[in-house]
Design goal:
The longest helix is centred in the C-terminal third of the chain and has 21 residues, at 86-106. Residues 1-8 and 14-23 have low confidence and may be disordered. The chain contains 5 helices and no strands. It has helices spanning 2-17, 26-40, 50-54, 63-77, 86-106. The protein has 108 residues and is mainly α.
């Protein structure tokens, strides 16, 4: 499972780097986020605990910095303080995608 999460993190990072995301890709993004969510949800309770979410940091070069940023994001998106729901996780992924696209446009 850890290997799949690593692969998912790399794939997720690659998706964020792409510029040409269009509205017709919404369903595909929803499916991708659902698959990733299920892989991260180690106890299959339908929510991501902070520990489950922070496992993403293990796949970054600077784990400490990644954990710090992911922790801040988790707090921001877990508005009910009961764990990230699939919709909240999708909102997180969308926000990262938008920031990445914005940076790519600004660097041109």
């Amino acid at each position: 499972m850890a290997r799949w999460i690593g692969t998912a993190a790399v794939a997720l990072t690659a998706v964020f780097m792409l510029n040409g995301v269009h509205a017709q890709d919404t369903q595909k993004k929803k499916l991708d986020s659902t698959v990733i969510f299920k892989k991260l949800d180690a106890n299959s309770d339908g929510k991501l605990s902070k520990d489950e979410f922070l496992k993403l940091a293990d796949h970054f070069k600077n784990r400490d910095k990644a954990r710090e940023k992911l922790g801040a994001s988790y707090t921001k998106f877990d508005t009910s303080m009961t764990g990230l729901t699939p919709d909240q996780f999708r909102m997180y992924l969308d926000s990262v995608r938008r920031k990445t696209e914005s940076r790519a446009i600004q660097s041109k």
